[in-house]
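Repro:
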Amino acid sequence: MPIRGLKICFGSNPSEEDRFAAAELSSLLKERTRLEVPVSESCHEGPVIVLTRTGGVDPLPLPDEVPGPQSRESYELNVTPDRAEILGRSSAAVFYGVQTLRQLVEGKGNDASLPAVHIEDWPSLAYRGVMVDVGSEGMMCTPEEVKRQIEFAARWKANQYYFYNEANIELRGYPLLNPDARFTQDQVREFIAYGRQRHIDVIPCLEMFGHLHDLFRIEKYSDLSDFPHGGEFNPENPKVKALVESWVNQYTELFSSWLVNIGFDETWELAKAAEKQGSSATPAKLFVDQLNYVAHLFQQRGKRVMAWADIMVKFPGIVKDLPPGIIAGPWYYSPTPDPEYKRWLTPLVENHIPHLVVTGVNNWVEITPDFNTAWENIDTFLAAGRKSHALGLINTFWTDSGQTLLRQAWPGIAYGAIATWQSSPVDRADFYADYAGQVYGPTVGPEVGDALADLAQAQTDFQKVVGGGSMYAVWEDPFTATSLKRSRDHRDDLHQTRLEAESAEEHLMRALALGGDPRNLESLLVGSRLLDYAAMKYLYSLEISDTWERQHQSPEHAKSLWEAVGPGIWQQTHSRLSDLTDGITGLREFYRKTWLAQYTSYRMGTALGRFDAEYEYWRHLQVRLQAFAGQYHGDQPIPPLDSIVHER
């Protein structure tokens, strides 16, 4: 079906949501083909794409929704040589048909077309969520970036966006709470409306017990914690109840969703708090009492309540005492030797607790996302969740390191949403190519697909050297005995990391030259360069150490060795240390640019400070080695390198 000359019209009385879907389709077709495809009120002339809603508007997921061919989200898509039609059982279903149609476009300009197809489609899970830490544990997303995340999730037919908040939403009566890093209530309302247009329910994902250090670091509120300036509420403090009720009222008024996630995860101070309160208190009792109290407040105001399930699993005896109707969120972010994830699911299944499984795209403490681990986690936990009759899945994106660039992880948004829509596993072998082809088009897509595959492998190979937390490893001392041993044992992995990162960089540079969207590609390019730098840092440090050790052990050859290789280590240009100082300073400016493209300046200084400290580390080492070289005479013994590197 040629796209040239098409128009879009309605086969049923269009709602506001249907008109939005039509406008989206018109815009998407123009973006992809460069052809105008107008929206018309008439379907009687010429070739057309007809949008027909066969049921109610029903734009958002409902409580107790059931997936399947008769579900609210089911649609049909038919394309013949002169007519295409999307028949959706709701406005959401029509919108999903539009998203599928955009994936079918072939060619550009006058040659653009749609293949003749018949599709009957519906989701395999009713609730398909994305949770993004937009400003609590690390950086602060701009409002525009939050909207871009919602729009991108909608492209892959997700229907929930969990807006994670510890203390980054403006609350009346709390002007001291993160005044430089919070979304106004009007901005949150904009996010909710923006999501609704795209059939995504924006759900408050709160912390109502722990993870509240941002509150308790304020002296005025420090006594509300179990311990001064701690991280968790003291439920025995009467002032806590007044604060919690105020927050519950404001969150209930602000968010229109029927669902609220109240957190209650990682309450690490419970044991000490129970010990402080005496023999009548136990960690489990403190937890379940406060959980019931907060849940009841929200339930009184018409909300269904969800909570993270890690503490429920830690104290499985409390499951029977959970608030009536609560939904659990068992989370685990790595593959497990237990393919059934029994530790996380069994207590909930045995007690008939409804649940959504919670996966993670491992981006929070890595240089680039660990997609290999993430795909395995999503696939295996989702399979276990299907067996436990999970209501759906929430795919999470955290920012624990305070340095991660969230745009690098966007392929994970697509992967998680696709996995929860279809009933068979995602085709991992072709995922990067298929994904990049859809997002970046047939010209740029192959370069980006290859870059993503290279980055995933580079990240995996670097983790073989440093373990998890590769972002932290960038800033560690590479000359400790432990670091040098790891580098020596994994010299080939460091070499491979650099080759793969450099290959990714080449692909990304070609993608940009071909007109690829820099908004995401530049974040990936920062990742490739930082991975290359990190591997180079450990590889160079090993080479410097080995060279020095040869000198140290062979004094009679010290002078000749120093003259041969010394300048290659310490000289001002074209040496290992100058490579490292040049590399980190250049990365600093590129990183700063990509940061400001998606985040506010909040905490940027802290992140950039690590680049500055890294530069100073190498500069000081260069100065000390140059000073040693200026004073050294060939007949002198060579001191251990450690005495110069870690000179006090």
